[in-house]
Amino acid sequence: MSTTDEHAERFTLLRPLLFTIAYEILGSVTESDDVLQDSYLRWARVDLATVRDTKSFLAQLVTRQALNTRRAGIRRREDYIGPWLPEPLLVTEQDAANDVVLAESVSMGMLVLLETLSPDERAVFVLHEVFGFDYDDIAAAVGKSLAAVRQMSYRARRYVQARRNRFGPVDTARTAELTELFMRAATTGDMEGLLSMLAPDVTWTTDSGGKATAVSQVMTGAPQVATTLMALFGSMLRRPDIRIEPVTCNSEPAVAIYTGDRLEAVLFFELAGDRIVKGYGIRNPDKLAALSIARTIARRPL
Predict the structure, then answer these.
(1) Residue 207 phi, psi (nearest 5)
(2) Is the pTM here over 0.85, yes or no?
(3) How confident is the model at residue 302 (pLDDT cuts 50, 70, 90)?
(4) Degrees (nearest 5) of the Cα angle 254, 259, 262?
(5) Which of 45, 69, 124, 270 is deepest in the core (most CB within 10 A)?
(6) Number of other residues whose CB lies within 10 A of the CB of residue 264
(7) Are 176 and 228 in the same domain?
(8) Looking at the structure, do residues 120 and 149 belong to the same domain, yes or no?
(9) What phi and psi values does residue 244 have, to the nearest 5 degrees?
(10) Phi, psi (rounded to 5 degrees) for 234
(11) Are residues 134 and 198 in the same domain?
(12) What is the C-alpha end-to-end distance of the chain, expressed in Å?
């Protein structure tokens, strides 16, 4: 086997893991693809005789490139029109459905929560809590001391657990059931039924990037959210070419809204018990374009 072939074979074998690391650090399918492309070009120049552990080496390389991308994009996030949400992810049939930790880590709710961590804390959390890398590898990836990485890991884990425990673990079956009920209520004008699914302090965030019609601020409270959503679905359903279908994105049930064959929006829900406590709508066509190609994400352990 030539050196070029061996570089390609090792990278391809680990590509699902590397993509998932990049996506969980960036929250962007498009940027993650770019990171992997750049990382491979760098990897292709590496002398394989110097590589003791390919998995650790490539994870560190991709993490560094993802962090560079995240820092370079801070200004773009600041200039973004309206709320920013992660890009939705369509996975292949070899998805995370049987891996609770991995499925949770790519859920829309978790990705939104990870946005509140610093880039380094987010990388440390993903590498250690999701994929089980040791602190030595993580320290090399983020360019921090071992003591600093341990402290970041502790803080990030406490922070994430405190907020996720408020809602409990993701219940995929219950989310699917409530998603179906939501679609039924919203498409039949059942305001009472819709209100019964919403927590009193529910929030709803829509990401349009200024490229589609959407509420530009986060909505709060069941009456406002229900009234706005009912008006939205009412106007949509007057159009003959609208389709509203259940889908699976980010390894969780969601709702897709189409005009003909064009995807207009994807809606996600976070539950606490039997109520929706957070809702997310992706309307930015640039982010929806990422759903045209299914990605294979890592299965742990790898």
Answers:
(1) -110, 115
(2) yes
(3) very low
(4) 80
(5) 124
(6) 19
(7) yes
(8) yes
(9) -125, 120
(10) -60, -45
(11) no
(12) 24
